[in-house]
Amino acid sequence: MSTFRLYKYLSINKPEDWNYRRKLLVDRELYFSDPKTFNDPLDCTLLAEENDNNDILKYFLKPFSAFCLSMEERDDSLMFSHYGDSHKGFRLTFEVNKDNTIDESSPLELGEPVIYLSELPKFEKSNVHRMPYTKSCSWKYEAEYRILKVSGKKYIYSPDSLIEISYGYRMNRDFESVIKYWVESGGHKRAKFLRAVPSRSLICFDYVDA
């Protein structure tokens, strides 16, 4: 069985984000972001070059949104700092199985790893579909995995997929009961709760039962 883990780092410092967090855990519904809001302005962008006809390329690349996670190779400390509100947020760990058939697959298994390059390729009709999965090597620490959506369909993942909820080292303990309630309401029977603690190595965090 070809299983692997995916990680989602979440902040909880903005009240407007709480509905997305609740739906992700209670309704098990993935939420998707417009690439125009990504922190890298060159991400998912067709760079203008002389004699390029970007309008034609855009015709072949349908408008899409993305749900972004990280793979095992990511830098956990940096990811928690950058996307988990400097450890005031929390991290979700999902387990997925790439051997599942399409009928058996959860939306989490339908994504692709991002490829990191020192020079972005020239996108043409034959390879423009790879653009959403190509980024500058400056972002390699994210080890990103993307699930794309081109329609209004809801993506609901399996209740067996979520296996860990890890609280950030600085997360307010008052939030724990809310997150636990959401997890229980979502029917995540495999999920266990962890808390980040400093590691003796000083370059990462260890995780203990919460």
Question: What is the structure about, briefly put?
Answer:
This protein is of the alpha+beta class.
What does this structure look like?
- The structure is a single chain.
- This protein has 210 residues and is α+β, with helices and mostly antiparallel strands.
- The chain has one domain.
- It has 4 helices and 10 strands; from the N terminus they run βααβαββββββαββ.
- The strands form 3 sheets. A 5-stranded mixed beta sheet has the order 1-3-8-9-10, with helices on one face. Strands 2-7-4 form a 3-stranded antiparallel beta sheet, with no helix packed on it.
- Strand 8, helix 4 and strand 9 form a beta-alpha-beta unit.
- The longest helix is centred in the N-terminal third of the chain and has 10 residues.
- The chain is globular and about 55 Å long.
